[in-house]
Every structure is written in structure tokens, then in C-alpha cells.
Amino acid sequence: MAGLRWCLVVLLAFLTALASLGDEVPGEGAVTDHEGHANCQPGVGQRVQVEFASSVVEHEYIVGFNNYYTKEARRNFITAALNHSGVVQWKILPRDNPAKHLPSDFDVLEIRESDPGTGLAALERHPNVRRVTRQRLVVRTLKFVSVNETELASEDAPEADEEEEDAGDAAEEGAEEPVEGSEEGDAAAVEEGDEEEVASVKFQPPRRSFTLGNKAFWHSTGRHNGRKLLKAVPRQVTSILQADRLWKQFGFTGKGVKVAIFDTGLKKGHPHFRRVKERTNWTSERTLDDAVGHGTFVTGVIASQADCLGFAPDAELHIFRIFTKKQSSFTSWFLDAFNYAILKKVHILNLSIGGPDFTDQPFVDKVWEITANGIIMVSAIGNDGPLYGTLNNPADQLDVIGVGGINFEDQIARFSSRGMTTWELPAGYGRVKPDLVTYGSAVRGSNVGGGCKTLSGTSVASPVVAGAVALLMSAVLHRGSVINPASVKQALMASARRLPGVSMYEQGAGKLDLIKAHHVLSRYKPQASLSPSYIDLTECHYMWPFCTQPLYHTGMPIIVNVTILNGMGVSGRIIEGPTWHPYPRQYGHLLQMSFSHSEVIWPWSGFLAVSIAVTEEGASWDGQVQGHVELTIESPPEDGDTEPRRSTVRLPVKAVIIATPPRSVRVLWDQYHNLRYPPGYFPRDILNTVHDPLDWLGDHIHTNFRDMYQSLRAHNYYVEVLGEPFTCFDAKNYGTLLIADPEEEYFPEEAAKLRRDVDEGLSVLIFAEWYNVPVMKKVKFFDENTKEWWIPDTGGANLPALTDLYNTLTVTDTSLGVLREWWIPDTGGANLPAQTDLEWWIPDTGGANLPALTDLYNTLTVTDTSLGVLREWWIPDTGGANLPALNDLLAAWGMAFSDQVVEGEYKFNDHDQYYASGTTLARFPAEGTVIRHTLNDQVSEILEGTKQTVPDAAILGLYQTRGAAGGGRIVLYGDSSCIDSNHNQKECFTLLSALLHFTSSGQLPSTLQPATTVPVQPVLELPERADGSNLHRHSKVLVNDLDGRTQRPLPPCMERLWAVPQPVNQSGPVNLYQSAKLLSVGLESPVLPLHNDQRDSLEEAQTTWPDPLEDLDSGPLGPSFRRPHLPTYGLVALLIASVCVLCYLYRKSRRPRRRRTKQAVVQQQQQQQRRALSASNGRVPVV
What we know:
Among the domains are: 46-146, Alpha-Beta Plaits, CATH 3.30.70; 237-524, CATH 3.40.50.200; 527-660, Immunoglobulins (Immunoglobulin-like, Sandwich), CATH 2.60.40; 663-805 and 875-1033, 3-Layer(aba) Sandwich (Rossmann fold). Helices cover 23% and strands 23% of the residues. The protein contains 25 helices and 43 strands. It is a single-pass type I membrane protein; Single-pass membrane protein.
């Protein structure tokens, strides 16, 4: 045993030495300086915080043409259109960039007229003009915030406070590069490698785009509370994803793949990159260098060949400097750069930027054109997590690979934005995004002056995927057009590893698996697929929120927005189906289905909106039901095919049905009357908000109100979403109508119907917000990025509109005899009217695209000499909510909100509550119950700079109506911030539960009974609609005209066409995730052998491309710090263990056996005799 113990001690010492050696390798969370040496603070990294702003530019318009034309031809078209329009003060702005001499499909036009409307209309009528939109200024502000490594590893860590930008990132990049180029006008525009000259650039007609003809689930990731063992992981992301396996085993290094990087530029001669083909500048600054550091880092993650290794070091890099030192850019800069990327025929385009403005139509159109030309676009989904509904554009587009971030413990990073997409709100339902996630926390990448640094953010995760795609493409370039944006996206999603306990709106298909993706892509066959690939309303947490509430008869249909990916071609269409096939053995016939889908699947993708409801036969049934949806997609023949390509896909469906719950526990959420930014300026509900004053997040029960939704479900309430006017629901099915923070106006027909519904027993619960016109003008927002002042179009809630609607109780039906045309998005989005002077175009992605604004606010402007744009004063479209509209709605019951704005803390049932910039009650029935608290007056603080209090402010009112059938109840509360997760305020879900108890049962809880009741005296002023508000530009109720007060006709209710069921005699699988495979390829089969052309490239790569790790041998640390591979550890340990065991067995076999003495034999015989006697009579004889 001594020998065995000695062997074990030696083995343990050896393994300890190996572990300590690995810990000394720099990069284990360390931040390195410009020379690559480890800093003294190995536990500190940096997180990228991104602030995005987008706004229109005064007097500038982008004129888009329907094809690519020369500069002279484009000028002739514009001149011909404006000749007789009455517009004389116009000019085409010059664009000084590498594409200025090439044909283009747009021009930037400046019109300095008081009324440019006639000229814009004339341009839109020209046969060669596709669209006229406003020029937009895009500002992305990057802040590198120092974050401790333990914070990066833990999702529960609080968000770091904002700090100053790291001085080390820009210490050496301040100097501008000398002017480069052959002509003075081309200075600092293009700098190419030795392999290509600027003079060789010739225009070739690019592949044109296809023309369309006639509490919080994010914390539930399988972690344990309390102590846990933190595993040591290498921060070299290429090693974790096993890129070195493809390098060494197969010789794939990204060679032959062209990668375009749209960012802040790259320094000339950076030691980390060997194949920089071209650097181009698209900004107004005369430099090509990276003055921010972000572009260098992103490029390093993709293709660095030294120190912090990239995935594809032999990829051909095309660097596009698209942001200035101040991190600003224009839409036109992007459009020119996109056109140039198409001309260069790049394979992959990484865009580690994003913003909420998906209404920038020229930008969205050009992204579609990029992917239609076969370019794979990878983009970050944003750093606005852990909030839901915070996806950034263009990552939220169907054809783009949207990437989220995780940490090295496979947990969703706290900063990573969450889905769903908000294009489809308020009437539809969002799509699943991100598409997949990968490492974006504490990742090492290249620094500006050399060496490495550590960053975190989805802008880090995006180049990880882009680099992985470049590496994968170098392995399958020989497959030609089979490898396209759709097939690559399909392969990445089919091979992704799902994270447990995380919803699809957080992780998409799951975590990137590079090796598995290589297996899939090597065997890929052109086909169509769906994302998600199945609908299982019983699977939590992945199918959140659909899995949290069962289906029942008379419930609002749920909408699951499925993405169609078409790897067969850039365009396609559904030729058969969708058809619903219920399984009678599993009661699938109790479900009914309705479908809407893209008429043309382009580019590479489309949508399938599945509406699911319960038939009348299932009104009293409880249990699971199953079936599947089937559809066939066809694309034109390619690559020598004689017949069109076809692919049939199935969408398995499983759901749980329960008996229809009683009316009292059913809550209807009003989604129709919520608006969002963009396009209007709707301020945040809390006036104390400084850093992010715009309310750009789409209000929805499953995004910013998701915590409230979870609380309601925990209290056994059933919550449904209304995406249509009040005239489109049966109030007899619901106990409470819940209205929170509305910005929209109300139709008179809605007000009249709501009055009847309340008389018949429907209760109304309203969470309002502030609305005060002087405050709105005072808090006009000056954006230092865009140099514009914004003033809200409404207050916190649109109260004036509600009052007007209820003053008109006699309703005239104007639906007949009125000429109107409604274009309804197939996804169920907002109904948009087709005007005679504007064209409303609904894309096949299902998002409603708002038309270009025909004029800008004629307000005070001053010139900003730094950017050449104009400062502008903008009035907000609303306050916190549209209180005038709410007051119109409540006037029939003698209720109204005031224009007071108050804030402060108070207690409810021993719970601390915070009233954040809310309003008070100005009118309320004397027989109602009113709750009062003394709060701070924010109006005097903002307007006069003095701090005053409002004693006994009426913040809550409860009233039982007296209808003919008993009447419902009405509850008014002046603040919605406590139920909105975006504001991070003290939640008031206990109060909400008490209020719902009153609205559903009519019993007033003791916690809501004040000691003394003081009626509301009608002395406070009511808020009035602000003059000059531009709410009509964004409203579904108001007409977009000069008056801004005219209402549209009431839109018709959506009529769903339920599919005829086609039962099939089969049973569905128990686990839909295991049975639903995205792609018809074998994922477990070995990697295919190399083709001859691959062998040639492998031999060439082995002779021209050195070992990616050999730079560590020559580095300052020497070869002794080179980390061996993990299999080496295992082999050495196994060898030592085997030697120890053999030594022990050998020594044991050679040890002589001891002989027993005669006395020992006699003693043993005596013991056996005593045991035998004891067993026979129980007594042992005494000797």
C-alpha cells in the first residue's frame, strides 16, 4: 500500500503543477496592455455600453431610384421631376467617398423651401423614383465600462455604474493618418493592400434585389443559490469553440472568404492582421484609423493571427470606416458603403451596431438588398438587457443573423437584449429573436496599439459568429450557391445547443456549436425550415410566455409568429398549404387554426403567423391536444436544375386545453392604444430619467410588463391581449379591462361601447401617467448626439382624448359612403390607411412601415458646425400618457385626471411604494372611495425650481357603477411605473392584486378602506391637448393632415378564416423538441473526407499559414507558457496512473507468502469445533 500511496501522491502533484501552469497563462480574464503584458488587475474587464440615437436631418431627403444609374442620369431624373413643381431652392449634395464615381440607386437632396411637399410629391410620381424619405443621423455612443470578472460571471450582479471611457483605449489612436489617395478629392477615402490598386476598381452591374411583382425568467438558468464552484475557463474564445480543431485537423483558416467589417476603422499595419485587402472611409473625416478602438477589437475577434486569436486569420478583410470619432453616421453613408460591399462581392458583413429605429426604410431596404445578393449579414441584437422587447435593428430582421451574448458559464448575459420583435406591435405578435447566442462576456480581442484587451457586449458576440461563419465558409466554398444566407443560418440554428431554463426570446435556437455546424453545413441539402421548428405550449421555460397559460374556448386567439427560412433560393412562395392536420387520438380536432403568411418569401425568408383558438366543442374539456401544420415551398430552379425546387415542412403543435374559466378571473389587456418610439417622441414616464428620456420600448404584456403578467398568473388570473379597438371584443367574457399608459386617441364608437359594457358588468382598471403642457414644453429634450430639441407630442397618458370621446354619446356610423382603403399586414399588425398622396407599403416581414414624413417641424434652428447639421426644437408627441384622451373616455362617469405631476414614497399595507411622476384625480364621484397621500410637486420643481408638496393628493379612486345589470367597477390610479419593469422602480403588484380583487368581486379589501373619506373637489384644472402636437403623424385614430384633430373612420374588426381541418390517423411524439429536426442531415455521422480541391487548399494553407499558437513561443512569456491541449493532460495522467497500477501489481506478485505454524492450525480447528457445538445446543463447553 505504501507504493500505491506514493504513486497517487506523485500523480496528484503532477496534475496540480499542470493546473497551476494553466492559471499563469495571460488571458484568463486578464486585461493586457498595448504590448500584450498582463496588467496587475487580472480580474477586471470592460463592458461595452451602447447609447443609440436616430433622428431626421433638416432639409435633407434621400431619393431612392428603382435601379442603379450614373450621376448624370440621376440628376436628370430629379431635374425633370422638380421643373414644374414650384420648388426652386434645391441641390444634390455631393458624396465624397470611394463610390462617388460609381452608379448608384440614390441621391441626397437638399430642399430649402418653407413647403417642400409639392416637390416631394413630384419626385414620388417620377417613374424612375422608388421612394423619397428623410435623411437620418445615426449616433452610437460607446462607453467602455470597467467591470469586475465576478460581475461578468454572475447574472445577478448589479449593473455597473457608468464611468469615463477608458483612456487606454484611445491613448495612441488620436493622431489622424496622413492623406492617402491619388487625387486630392479622394484623400483618406481608400487604402488598399498590395493585392489590388484603387485604379482597378471598375463598375460592374451588381446583382439586383428581387422585385416584388404584381419574477424574471432570465435568472432561471439552472444556477444554484449560495456557494458554487467557479470553473476556470480560458478566455481564448477560439479554443472554447474548438476552432483550432478545424485549423489543424482540416486546414481551414478562412482563406478565400471576403469579410466586410462596418465599424470605426482599423490602423494601418496592425501586427495582428495579415490579409487586410482594403480600408475605406465613408465619413466626413479625412482618416482611416480607428479612433475609438471598437473596430480594431471586432476585426481581431474575426481574423487576428497573433496573441488573441481570431477565427479566420486568412480571411480577406475589407474595413469600412462608417463612424466618426464622435461615433456619428448618416443613413446615406451606410447606403453608399452597402453598395460598395455588393460591388466587391464580399461573402460576410459584420455589423456590430444597432438601434431601435426600424422605420428607417432606406436602411432596411438596403439590408434586404445586401442579403438578396448572397451576402451573409451578422449583427448584434443590442445591450439593453435584461429587459424584454429591446431588440436592435438590423439584427431583428428576418434575413439577418441576430446574435445575443452569454458568459463562459453558458448563462445569458445580463446585458444581452431580449425578444420579441416589436415591428408587429400593437396588433400582432413579435417574432423569435435572437437567432442564436454565443460568448460575448469577457472575450479577448485586439487593441488599437497592439496586444489584447477584454470586452463584453453583444457587439463582441456578433464578430464571434461572423468569424465562425468565415471559418465554416472556407470549408464549403466548393459547394457554390448551396451556401447562402439562409443555409448558413439554418446550419447555425440546427446545430446550436439549447440552454436549459431559458426562453426562446433570450437564446433563440441556442448556443453556437462550431464543430456541429461544420458537420451540418458539409452535408446540407437545399431545403426550407421553420423557426421555431415546433409549437409546444406545454414546454416551459423555452416556450415562454405561451406555456404559462392554457387555452380555452372564447379566449382571444394566441398568435405564434414563425420565421420561414428558404435555403433553396433567394425567392420562393408557398404553393401548398398551410394545412391543419389534427390527431384525433390526441383530440387535435378541438383546436382551430388560422394562417397568414408572406406572399413572396424574399430575401431568403418570410413569416408564417399561426393563430390558435379552441373550438366550441372544447369548452368543457381538459387535457392535451396535438396535430401538425404542413406547407410546401417552391423556389425557381438553380445550378442547372430543370424543375423548380420544392420543400415540404411540418410544424408540430401541442397545447393544453382547460374548461373556460369564470368571467371574474379573466383580464383583457388593451394593447391597441399603446404607441411607441420610433417614430414619435414619447417621453419616459418618469421625469427624473436623464440618460434615456425617450420611451422607445414597445409596451406589451410580455415585454416591459412581463413581471406584472407573471404576478397575475401567480394569482390565477387569465390574461388576454386585445390588439383591436374596443368594438372588437365581447365584454361578457371578461371581468376586467386593464388599460396602462395609453398614448393613443379613442374612437367615439369605442367610448359608446365601453359605456354599455360597464353597465353590463365589465370593470375597468386604469394605470395612467402625467400630462402637463407647460411641463412638456419645459422638458423638451436636447439630444447632444443629434443636436436637436424634442418636445413631447403627449403627456404620460392621452387624457384629453378620452374626455372628448365620452362627451359624444350619440354615435354616427360613417363606415358607409366613405371612400377608404385598408392595407392589413398579414401578421395582424396595425391597420394603416392608404392615402391618395402617400403610399403605405407593408413588407412581407409583417412589420408596419410608416411613410416618410413630408415635412419637418418649422421651428427654431441653429447650425451645428461640428457635423454640418441643424439643431432643432421638438415638442414631445405626448406626455407620459395621453390624459386628455383618457378624460374624454371617463367623462360619462364624472371622472377625470388632473394636470398635476407628483412623486414621492408612501406605504400601502406595510409595503413601501414609490409614486413616480404620476398624476392625480381632478374629478371623481362623491360616493366613490379615494386614497390620498402627501407627495412632492414636480410641476413647481420643473417650472419654478422650487420644492413644494401636494398635501393629500388623490392618487387612487375606486367606484362601483350603478348599471341596469348590476354595473361594473372603475378604478383609477395615476402612475403606471410601478407595474412597468423597464423603470426598475418599486413594484406594486400587491396593490394590483387588491385592485383586481375589487374589480372582479366588488368587495373592497380592508387595505383599501381609508380612515376618512374626503371627496374630490372639482377645483383642479384638466389637461388640454398641446397645440402643435404631432401625434396625428403616428396615430391610428387621427388623420395625418394639417389639422391633426380629424379622426379616421373606425376600422373593421379582423375576421380570421379558420382552416378546414384534415385529420390524420397518427399519434404525436411526447417530446416535440427531440422529434422536430430542422434539417434533413445526419448530425452524428463523421466528417466527410476532403475533396481534391480541398486537399490542394489544405496543402497550400499548411505551407503558407503558420501555427496560430506559435506566436506565443516567440512572445515575451516564451514557449514555456504555451498551454497544451486538454487531451494532452488526459493522456499524461492516464499514463502515470497506468504505471502506478502496474508497479503495485508487480510488487504484490513478487511478495513471498507466509507459512502458517502448526500451533496456528490447531487453534483454527478448535474454533471451528466450538462454533459447531454452539449451533447445535447453544452451549459452548469449557476447556
